[in-house]
Amino acid sequence: xxxxxxxxxxxxxxxxxxxxxxxxxxxxxxxxxxxxxxxxxxxxxxxxxxxxxxxxxxxxxxxxxxxxxxxxxxxxxxxxxxxxxxxxxxxxxxxxxxxxxxxxxxxxxxxxxxxxxxxxxxxxxxxxxxxxxxxxxxxxxxxxxxxxxxxxxxxxxxxxxxxxxxxxxxxxxxxxxxxxxxxxxxxxxxxxxxxxxxxxxxxxxxxxxxxxxxxxxxxxxxxxxxxxxxxxxxxxxxxxxxxxxxxxxxxxxxxxxxxxxxxxxxxxxxxxxxxxxxxxxxxxxxxxxxxxxxxxxxxxxxxxxxxxxxxxxxxxxxxxxxxxxxxxxxxxxxxxxxxxxxxxxxxxxxxxxxxxxxxxxxxxxxxxxxxxxxxxxxxxxxxxxxxxxxxxxxxxxxxxxxxxxxxxxxxxxxxxxx
Length: 418
Description:
The chain is of the alpha/beta class. The chain contains 18 helices and 13 strands. The strands form four sheets. A six-stranded parallel sheet has the order 5-2-1-6-7-8, with helices on both faces. A hairpin with a 4-residue loop joins strand 9 and strand 10 (253-257). Helix 1 crosses helix 7 (176-199). The longest helix is centred in the middle third of the chain and has 24 residues, at 176-199.
């Protein structure tokens, strides 16, 4: 069946006039710049000639494009620059002088050694917003240590509350440490751009993946700060709210989340046991927490009698927050996902049709900004050198011959199937 590609929108998004020079790779930085690109920013991704972002080599692949790279680099342009050469560094500095934002996620000190640090670039562009994302930040005893998502999850305490009680510690399925750095990085960049409208000056932003996860601990951190006791893993259960979590059905599990008194009363009615509302053991939040095991056992005694589908229908009817536990595929094919247009088919001239998760931010009354496919390595190099730096054909050819960037080569155009 031929799928329809996403229609091209005339509106690129609210960041249409923002130019971002992107020195990031792998996940935290590319996630931040993808969010900016989704809102219309022109993101120029700087990659190493012949290699590019490490994630370009992570299987599985669609054609020659990695799933990993594909998921984090839509709506961007790619330029290859050999930053070991003086010409490559000069081009990078020239591009930074014409950019609103520079973002990098190397270890602290790398950009200084390249002469691409904030102090150097801001001399020629005082309005530059410069964001550095690293594992542990620009200072502190762990500054120079390598970090990946799993390290940040372990050091932040996140891993200690994940999983079932008494089980081996486990990381979250989402790479939340990397993603947290990207989220806080993009928020900080937007805040600094807003401030620049008033001051005309840029900012140097220091984002730590570890700090970002600590900032996301929320009420879990406050439990410790109030009581002096660290929360323990609860599985799907909530440390302070009952009933809340996964309950066994006759053919699987159903999530039930009674965050308020009203929802607890609705659940009691849904399971046909309204007497529980008047039971002194379950009369308020504190009492239900005291008798957590008894209440969970009572609820599950009921949920075991019907299928997950039957409970889904019944809980919806009684207005109880609930959900079946879907696989990734089931979630992506869900009717609500389709209705919200969260899976888009886009055409890449070499890869052909690519199905991508869409931009989760919707602007009411405006057409959805179009998605552009992730770029091939160096796909936009000559275009960027010509249109932004105004180099002529001879200058570009000389840079190519000197190994400052790789030529893209001859490409076979893919048949359009969407």
